[in-house]
Amino acid sequence: MKSSRLGEFNREHSIYAAKPWTVDSEARVQQDPHSTAPIDGLDCLLDVYTALDVIEVWSEHRDGAHPTIAERCAALAYYENHDDYLMPEE
Fold first, then answer.
1. Residue numbers in the chain where pLDDT is lower than 70
2. Quick one: which of 31, 64, 71, 86 could link to 78 by a disulfide (CB 3.0–4.6 Å)?
3. CA atoms within 13 A on the CB side of 75
4. How far apart are CA 49 and CA 6, in angstroms?
């Protein structure tokens, strides 16, 4: 699930990815923001707007650091699985 191109997509579109959600998951962005039904074996992960927010919050809590693709994917999967942001370990 490569998240480095998220800013190129319409914020209302939805991200679909193969479970388990990892950096290597097949993923794509679909237009319909109102559907969460699986598409071609991919499950709805998040809408692009929320994904961008999750990545921004990750960065803010790490003094503006730019996350790697693996860190972005971990933050997105964490958010989807816990309905919460992935905070740095104290």
1. 1-4, 33-34, 90
2. 86
3. 27
4. 9
Residues 6 or more apart whose Cβ sits within 8 Å of residue 9 = 29, 48
Among 79, 86, 77, residue whose Cα is nearest residue 24: 77
Q: Which long-range contacts (CB under 8 A, 24 or more apart) does 26-31 make?
A: 26/1, 27/1, 27/2
Q: How far apart are CA 65 and CA 34, in angstroms?
A: 32
Using a 10 angstrom Cβ sphere, with 0-12 exposed, 13-18 middle and 19 or more buried, the burial of residue 46 is buried
60: phi then psi, degrees, rounded to nearest 5: -60, -35
